[in-house]
Amino acid sequence: MIRQLLLSCCILACGSLGLAQTPATATVTSSASFSRDVAPSSLVTIFTNPSIHRSANSTTTKVKVKDRRGNTHHVEVFYSTPQQTNIYVQDDIATGPCEFELSSGINEVSRGAFPLTWVAPGLFAANANGVGVPAAVVLRVTASGVQTYERLFQWSVQLNRYVPLAIDKGAPTDKVFLILFGTGFRNNPDMAEVQVTLGEQNVQVYYAGSQGPAGIPGTFLGLDQINVLIPNNVAPGVYSVVAKVGMLATNALTVEVK
Amino acid sequence: MKLRYSAIAVFMMLAFVTSVLGQQKPVKITVTMFEEEKSGGNQPVPQLVFELPPYGQTLAIRNNAVQGIITNNGQGYIFSDDPANPSPGLNEEIVLHVSWLSPQTFELWTSLEKIYTPTFADLYPRGFGPEIFLRVTVQTVNGKATLQVENRQTLMGFLHINAAGTTQEMPNSYKKRNLPGHTWNPADAYVSWGVQPTATQYVGMRMTRGTSTVDFIKLSVLE
Questions:
Q1: For chain A, what is the mean pLDDT?
Q2: Residue B193 contacts residue B161 (beta carbons within 8 Å)
Q3: To 5 degrees, how large is the angle CA A151–CA A155–CA A157?
Q4: How far apart are the first and last CA of chain A?
Q5: Does residue B117 belong to the interface with chain A, where contact is any CB pair within 8 Å?
Q6: How far is the first Cα of chain B from the last one, in angstroms, to the nearest whole number?
Q7: Using one digit for the tens of pLDDT, what is the confidence trace for B125-145?
Q8: pTM of the full structure
Q9: ∠B41-B47-B48 over CA atoms, to 5°?
Q10: Can you tell me the distance from the alpha carbon of B6 to that of B24, in angstroms, rounded to the nearest whole number?
């Protein structure tokens, strides 16, 4: 089940990002937060002018990144349409000012620049727009050690988008973990640097890093993960969730607690 | 016809007023990559002071533009390659980069990795490699420009100041650039990040030992 949820989160977050915004010129953003800051080993979205990149597709679109050392890297393209291209910025690209070139055919070229910083945290949202309910799952561990994964969003036919599904704290002996997915923070060297707030309350962070070991089935390229414990004393309500890695905060998402 | 001429007149007046109001005195900002302490106050190294370009232009300083510069007191702060770990293509490497996001906001990125101090290593570490990334908004109030600086990243080669302000060593992977036998002693000196002595100045990194200070990446609004 966790594999299916992860897959759906990743597809939701990475596969339909273009619905959120369509800039006129090529712009590089984090695939999760849509902020300008991007990091090595992270998922990145380039928004392009659809009238220029008419024949863009995942097979033919090529993206080159030139780092501040003058080295040119061909990055992996895993999704491309005339409006947007999703890439993986690998870890051998030097941090600092970078230039990129996106080509999708004859006379279909866009160029731009972006700063690559070591850490640029962002969290994926279920609606792939960087806000609202997170593309996350809830892990419940009962006193007897039974683990179950639960959803925290559901599709609203009326609203035509995902809406929060309230998290059930369950029995007092249950441990309920919120597992958030994002990108751009695996290079953080120190777990003590990671803080997550639920509303105004700091919650305990159990893990923040890569979603899985590289090359292992079930591990998604560039996907990072944060596991936090939802305290038993959280009152029912709607809360903003923000992770902070060092001095850098992620986009704010929203969860509901029963 | 009369209406048309009136519309033209109004348009011309608006254009005139806009052009007059829009003529603001251009803000002159410099970035000093390195400023050493001397008696009577800190003194910038002239070759390491750069004026920010106007909006729409980019400042990119490559290693070959600053390599070999030695400060006035001859202590030998040099932008160069690390002899223990030479890098191919080093001279073309960008060490300072400034680009404008809007007429009021610019981003500054720098790598001070290639500074080391052969004859002054008791005060400053060799082979240290901080990267600093700032997002700066220039606000003009009553004709005076001030700097609002957002520190987006500070990374050092083997030292790191965490969110609580505590100095801590980085994992081994961060230490590969260091020369053997040279370590930075936090008890002996310290590093301050993001020092803003006035609204028109900002220091990316200040190293202090006793009463001595050295500033790296100092932004200054020139009146």
A1: 90
A2: yes
A3: 160
A4: 23
A5: no
A6: 50
A7: 444 557 889 999 999 888 889
A8: 0.80
A9: 65
A10: 29
Give the bridge partners for A256, in sequence order.
A238
B165: CB partners within 8 A, 6+ apart: none
Helix H, strand E, coil C: the string for chain B is CHHHHHHHHHHHHHHHHHHHHCCCCCCEEEEEEEEEEECCEEEECHHHEEECCCCCCCEEEEHHHHECCCCCCCCCCEECCCCCCCCCCHHHCEEEEEEECCCCEEEEEEECCCEECCCCCCCCCCCCCCEEEEEEEEEEECCEEEEEEEEEEEECCCEEECCCCCEEECCHHHHCCCCCCCCCCCCCCEEEEEECCCCCEEEEEEEEECCEEEEEEEEEEEC
Cross-chain residue pair A69–B60, CB shorter than 8 Å: no
Per-residue pLDDT tens over the stretch A135-153: 999 999 999 999 999 999 9
Are A96 and B87 a contacting pair at CB < 8 A? Answer: no
For chain A, give the longest Cα–Cα distance.
63
The chain A residue lying nearest B133, using CA atoms, is A117
Amino acid at A156: S
DSSP letter for each residue of A160-188: TEEEE-PBP--STT-EEEEEEEEES-TT-
Q: Residue B80, CB half-sphere, CA atoms under 13 Å: how many?
A: 13
Determine the Cα–Cα distance for residues A181 and A211; give it in Å rounded to an integer. Answer: 8
Q: How many angstroms separate the Cα of B217 from the Cα of each of A84, A247, B43, B196?
A: 36, 19, 13, 12
**Which residue bears the tokens 């293509």?**
B89
- N residues, chain B: 223
CA distance B19 to B13: 10
Closest Cβ–Cβ partner in A71, A97, A117 for B153: A117
How far, rounded to the nearest angstrom, does the alpha carbon of residue A2 sit from its chain's CA centroid?
Answer: 17
pLDDT tens-place string over residues B50-96? 999 999 999 999 888 887 776 545 554 556 555 556 666 667 888 89
In this complex, which of A97, A195, A244 lies closest to B94 when CB atoms are compared? A97
The answer to whether residues B190 and B199 touch, using CB atoms and an 8 Å cutoff, is: no
Element (DSSP H or E) covering residue A206: strand A201-210
- The C-alpha atoms of residue A240 and residue A236 are separated, in whole angstroms, by 13
Cβ–Cβ < 8 Å for A222, A161: no
Residue ranges of alpha helices (H) inside chain A are: 2-15
Number of CB pairs < 8 Å for A and B?
63
Of the candidates A19, A10, A117, the one whose C-alpha atom is nearest the C-alpha of residue B130 is A117
| Closest listed residue to residue B35, CA positions, set B195, B161, B223 | B195
